[in-house]
Structure formats: structure tokens, C-alpha cells
Amino acid sequence: MNRRRLLTSLGAAAVPTVAGCTSGRDAGTTAEPPRTATGTDGATRSGTAEGASATQTRTTASTTAGQVGFEFETDGEVLASPTVVDGTVYAGSTDRALYAVDVATGAERWRFETTGQVFSSPQVVNGTVYVGSGLGGTPGDTSLYALDAATGTEQWRFETGDRVKASPTVAGETVYVTSRDGSLYALDAATGTERWATGLGATSESSPVVSDGTVYVGSFDNRLYALDAATGAERWRFRTGDLVRSSPTVADGTVYVGSSDRSLYALDAASGREQWAFETGPSEFGVQSSPTVADGTVYVGAYDARLYAVDATAGTETWAFPTDDAIVSSPTVADGTVYVGSQDGSVYAVGREDGDQVWSVATGEGVLSSPTVVAGTVYVGSDDGTLYGISTAGDGSSRGSRVRIRALGHHGR
């Protein structure tokens, strides 16, 4: 086991946001007409609060489906999936910062700077933001952070033995997170004290999911693990044909997870017995997208450039929606529509029943971030360094089992 230790917070309190301060950003300014959808078938670390600027934020009222309501620019790629809680969207960037942004205006409320790139999607529970950091810096950042959700002030940080690219999951009073050091950690959510750690046989970038006292998590040793949530003791393991980067989801006693062997698996949550395996088309990296389950259908993206709808009971294809590049983004469902990003640079809205395109919005680069829908707005990041807010012209919010269990950056309290 690599060395690990709890590091107490050294961060000073964040400076309250003052309109017009710092980098000269004006929330609510419109530098150009809003982007519209195409097609109807597109040493010490602390929180730092800063204002918004015209070069970084563009906002406009939007009630048209597929119209961009605001664009918040960072200095890196926004690969992490945004989390929306109480009027604030939280998202990380490879510019080594986590941002808190006002959902109504696009104004920056605060930023927290790490010494590593933030691939991890934040989880926000009981006024605390939990997020991992990794890559970049010297010697690099290998920590899970707990931050005050209102100010960005560091409450504690826990150092693992390697980068934390996965998203943490909070269940009860425990936060669970994997590290590329090959371990799954269970930490006290209030203090960051380690409760237990279990080796996963290889590095892991899979985000753990907790259901009925069991933690489910994937590993680069080609396995999905089921562990006792209280002790870390192994209950079962399931071997796939390649590494498991996908994060599992649990619905109605079944675990769904993708593998780089090109398959989506359905396993009995209690025993790990395979119920079915759905094979996607030829591709080098298979299924790295994390599945979402809603109304008896599993939605998942694949490296074969398709979004799939699969019958959750039978494992048969309901429909497949093609894009122009791989889909790593994990889909989400709201108001009868499935939302997903593609490395072809677009965010897609697809009809849940028929798989037909409703609209798409082109960003400047690939979209690996997974969308979150709250009150009729799709929040999603892009490799072009921008966090987007796109109108659905509805009032719904994300649905599906990954939303209910607060996994992969979806909204919650």
C-alpha cells in the first residue's frame, strides 16, 4: 500500500464575491448572439472568490430548446461532470481549479486551486463539496478535498498514493473514492479520517456506487468488485474481458457496468452472477461511458460512436443513435429526452422512446463531460475549456439511478 495520510486544512477563508472585482468579468453581458442548436432531428491552498468577466462569462435568458444560456470559460479543459446544488454549478478544469458558478448569471462565486488537474466530478452533500485532484504540478496532487460549498474554504484533504481521477461518492457519513494507487478508500465525511482502504488489484478510475450496504467499483485488473460498505471486505468480484473504467450503476437489484471489451454487463447485485452482456460495435476502447437506467431502459455511450438504449431486463437493443466520434460522456434523462456529449464536439438531445435527434449544440472541442439537467437547463463541460448551460425548453431535471444515488456529478443535496 502506498503511503497515505490525512492532511489538515491550511487554507484561509475565501474572499466574499464583490461585483466588479478582480479579472474584470461582468456577469450577464452578451458579447455575441447566443449559440443555437442545429437540427430538429444539437503550498497553502484556499478558495478564492472572484467576479465574472465579459471574456469568461456570457449569459442570456433562453427558453428555446438547444439554445446556450451561458458560457463560463476556464483556462483548461472541462472534462469533469458538473454538479448543481442550490443555485450553484460546481465543475473542475484541467487548469487545476474547481469552480462554483451562479446558475442564473454565470458569475463565478469562488474558485479553489489545487496543484493538479481536476478530472474528478464534485459531489456536494450537506454543504460540503468533495472532489479529487491529479496530474500536473510538482510533485503532483494526489488528494481528495472537502470544501465549504458556500465559500470554497478547505475543510480537510486526504492524500492518497496517486492521482484521484474518479469522482467520490458520499453515503451516510462516509465518502468513498478510488485512486490510481489501486485502492478504494472509505473516509469519515466530516473529518477525512480513513476508516478503511481496500486494494483493487490495479489502478482505478471508476467512481464507486453504494447501494444497500455494498460498494460497487471497477478496476483496471478487468474486474468489477462488490465490497462491504462498512468494512471493505470483498463480497464478490466479476471478471470482464478488459479493464473496467466505466462507473457502475445499480437499479432494481441489478448492477450495470461497461468494459473496454466492448460490452455492457448486467449482473445480479447480490451474487455478481451475469444476467446478460450486450456487445457494442467494433472499437479500440469499448464502453467507458457509465450507464444510466430510467424506466426499464439502460442508456450508455460507446467508443463505436453510438449512444445505445438497451432493455434493462432482456439486454436487447432498443435503438442506437450514431454520432461522429466516440462517446465517453455518460447520458442522463430528463423530460423524455436523453442528453449526452460526444468527442465529435457536440452535445446531443435524443428522444428517449425512438432514439431520434431532437437537437444538437456544437462546442469548440470534444465533450467528455457528462450532462446534468436541472430545472430545464443542461449543464455540461467541453474540452474547449467552457462550462455550458443549454436550455431544454422544459422544466425537468435529471432522472435515473445514477442521479438518485448521487453518482457521477449529478445534482443532489
What is the CATH fold-level name?
Methylamine Dehydrogenase, Chain H
Name of the CATH superfamily: YVTN repeat-like/Quinoprotein amine dehydrogenase
Secondary-structure class: mainly beta
> Averaging pLDDT over every residue, what do you get?
84
In what range is the share of β-strand residues? 35-45%
The global form is: globular
Alpha-carbon distance between the two ends: 33 Å
Low-pLDDT residue spans: 1-36, 38-55, 408-413
Level-1 CATH class name: Mainly Beta
Radius of gyration: 20 Å
Query: What level of helicity do the residues show?
Result: under 10%
Using brief descriptors, characterize the structure shown:
globular, Methylamine Dehydrogenase, Chain H, 1 helix, single chain, 5-stranded antiparallel sheet, 413 residues
Notes on the protein architecture:
- The protein is mainly β and 413 residues long.
- It has one domain: 7 Propeller (Methylamine Dehydrogenase, Chain H), CATH 2.130.10.
- Helix content is 1%, strand content 41%.
- The protein has one helix at residues 401-404, and strands spanning 5-8, 47-48, 57-59, 68-73, 83-85, 88-93, 97-102, 108-113, 123-125, 128-132, 143-148, 154-159, 169-171, 174-178, 183-188, 194-199, 209-211, 214-218, 223-228, 234-239, 249-251, 254-258, 263-268, 274-279, 292-294, 297-301, 306-311, 317-322, 332-334, 337-341, 346-351, 357-362, 372-374, 377-381, 386-391.
- The strands form 8 sheets. Strands 1-12-11-10-9 form a 5-stranded antiparallel beta sheet, with no helix packed on it. Strands 2-8-7-6-5 form a 5-stranded antiparallel beta sheet, with no helix packed on it.
- Strand 3 and strand 4 (68-73) form a beta hairpin.
- The longest helix is centred in the last third of the chain and has 4 residues, at 401-404.
- 60% of the residues are buried.
